[in-house]
Structures are given as structure tokens and as C-alpha cells.
């Protein structure tokens, strides 16, 4: 599955609830987040940015690596891909991303019985 490209936020669901559940309220923005994915085979650089801020991780599918969450927490994880969907367990939530109708669809789900599912859909720019 080819993820490479630059995408701009088009819609999102449960944004405020997700920020509250993960303690990321200070990250709230009205800017349209831009996600850039550079892909070289199974190796990726995944960057999200708004004016004045960016966050980036690098990983190779199936290989454990050191990553950093948006809260600045360093952790070790293995990014996997199954059925065209990228998946990674962050300390605060479970992340998946897939391409659907040439749109990047990312879903973050917080743990627990009352977990929050945050969905972000971004179109190519």
C-alpha cells in the first residue's frame, strides 16, 4: 500500500474527547493539520505539522524501534501492516492508518471500557 504523499485535514470525529482522554488538551488547534508521509519500501518518515509546530517519527515495518509520542514520551514499539493498514500501540492510544479512496484515514483509540475513538480524514494536497 502506497502511503507516500502530503495530506491536509478534511474532517475529524471525537477530537476534543480524544485530547481530554490523552491529556493533550494543550495541543488543541483550529489549524488544518498537514501530514506528510515519506515511504521507501517498508521504511517511513511520518510527520504532522501546523504553523509553528511539527512532530515526526521514523520507522521500518516489522522492526522494533525507539519512537516518541506527541507528549514527548519515548518508547519502543513495532509498527506493523496488515491488510493495508498500519498499526502501532502508543503509550496513550492504539493508532491505525489506511488509504481509502485516495484519502489518509487515521484512527486513534484510547484504552478502557470508555475508550475514545478519534478519526481523522485527510486529502492529498
Record keyword descriptors for this entry.
mainly beta; 125 residues; single chain; 1 helix; 9-stranded antiparallel sheet; two-stranded antiparallel sheet
Work out the radius of gyration. 14 Å
Write the element-wise H/E pattern from the N-terminal end onward: EHEEEEEEEEEE
Helix content range = under 10%
Structural class label: mainly beta
State the total count of DSSP E strands. Answer: 11
- Adjacency order of strands in the biggest sheet: 4-3-2-1-11-10-9-8-7
**What value does the average pLDDT take?**
91
Major beta sheet, specifics?
9 strands, antiparallel
Q: Can you count the helices?
A: 1
Q: How does the overall form come out from the CA principal axes?
A: globular
- Oligomeric description of these chains: single chain
Describe this entry's structure for a reader:
The protein is mainly beta and 125 residues long. The protein has 1 helix and 11 strands, in the order E-H-E-E-E-E-E-E-E-E-E-E. A 9-stranded antiparallel β-sheet has the order 4-3-2-1-11-10-9-8-7. Strands 5-6 form a two-stranded antiparallel ribbon. A hairpin with a 5-residue loop joins strand 5 and strand 6 (74-78).
